[in-house]
Structures are given as structure tokens and as C-alpha cells.
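Example record

One chain of 266 residues, shown exactly as stored in the release files.
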Amino acid sequence: MFVRSAERELCFKGFTLITPAVSVGNVGQLAADLIISTLDMVRVGHFHTDCLIPMAGNNPYSSGEDDAALLSTNAEVYCRSDLQLAVLQIRTPIVPTKTKSFRKILVSWIKTSGFSRTVLLSSCHAHQRDDQQLLSSPLRYLLTPALQGDTKGMETEETLQSLGWREMERVSAFPGITDSHTQCLYIPGGGVTKALYSDCCSENVSMVVLLLFCSEGDNVPDAFTLLNHLNDWLHLLDKPVQGSVPWRIPSSWRLLFGSGVPPTIF
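Predicted C-alpha cells for this chain:
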């Protein structure tokens, strides 16, 4: 259930929603952090649900001691009304036995909120690519039928293809059989990506899935790669003539790999 922070009514009608899937390398979550931090997005609410592992902590986007103690939870919504943009940041994994319930809650909220489109940022295991995928860009996309069936959706697909992006390939459900009727999506390490995409297809929700092939480790470069591709499409920030887009790293990333080795152990 979405709980808004302010008493005033929120209206997301016509907004674009960006949300990550908890997947290999946490690439989508890292990219969402960069968007929220760089665009100075305002927290407008959170999700109260038992479908996610509980979490509470300090403000991950604090700029000083004044706002560092603000409480953050496992699923929060941030907004920039002037850009008609909202980000649902999910910080903890879904409880394995409640994956279906969480998907149902999320799809219902997307539909009732009136978002014009949803962008799901995800990732999948690089080591499970086939030969065709190894010889091309590590970025893939998926569009739901709701986007493919109208003029705006066709424009979206043409735009993504003009950027050199490739649709996620279907693979044979039975090795050695190339019949198109046995082709299916295979997103290893993608977490809820495939199931949520399928739900949005059946519920007539306009969704674009952007995913990157990657491996576990330091996935900060992967997050920048995914976000720069997203920016080429949505133009969240102006791209400089020289150099890279100046994404702002949030303060919480200082402890991304822990606080270091304590000197007392030596």
C-alpha cells in the first residue's frame, strides 16, 4: 500500500515511473539512486508492505548533518513534478513466498496512479549470454503490447531502435528446437523482471524494460552505463559536447563496500 508523506493529494497522471528490479549486481537500484540524487527529487511517500524484507536507515541522499537523520525505508517514492517523473526506489529483496503478492500490489498502484509509462531498470547474468548476445551491445529492452499497439508506443520503439538498442532475444524452451512457438524469455539473475513484465503484458500496462548484462562485483560502472543509455532516450539531463553526463553520486555510496578494515585487527 502506498502511503504519501504529505497531507496534500498527489497526482501522477501522465507521469513516467522509473523503478528498479532487485537483480544481479543491483544495477537498477544504483541507477535509481543516481537519478534521485542528481535531480534532487523529493520524497513523496513510501510503500507499506510485508512483501519486502524490512529495512530502516538514515537518509541516503543527505547533503549534511541537517537532513542526515531523516528515516528511509525499504521502498520509497520520489518525485519531480516539473519533469513529470517519479522514481520508486526498492532497497531490499522481495520475500520469496510473497513475490506474486508484491507484483500484484505494484501493478495495481501503477494502474490506479495513471502513469503514462513505467520504465523497469534491470540486469541479468553476463555469463549466460549466447553467441549472438556476446557479439553485440550488453543493453537489451522489452516493450509490453500496450506500448506496441499505439502511435506513441510505435514512436518509442522506433526511438529505441534508432539509438542502436536491441530487443531481448527469445530462446528455445527446448534445446535444439528452433520452432518460434517454443521461444520464451530467459532473464537469469533478473529477479522479478520476467514475471512483472508478463503481468504488465496481461494487465495492459505500458512498460519498457531496460536491462544490462553484467556480473557481480563493483557494479557502479554498470549503473552509469545503464543510466547513460536511459538518458539518451528520456533526456533527463543535457548531454555535454565533451565529457560525460555529470551524475551526482549520493552520500550513502561512501559505504557501498563497507567501512573498510578496522585497524584494531592488526
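Notes: The chain has a mean pLDDT of 88.
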